Amino acid sequence: MKMKWISEYNTGIDVIDDQHKRILDYINEIDDCSEHIDRAHIKQILDNIIDYTQSHFTFEESLQEEAGYKYRVPHKRVHDLFIKKIESYRSRFEMGQTIEAELHEVLSKWLINHIQHDDADYVGAVKENMMGIIKEKEQKKGKNWFTRFFS
Question: In the chain, what are the domains?
Answer without folding.
Answer: 13-150 (1.20.120.50)
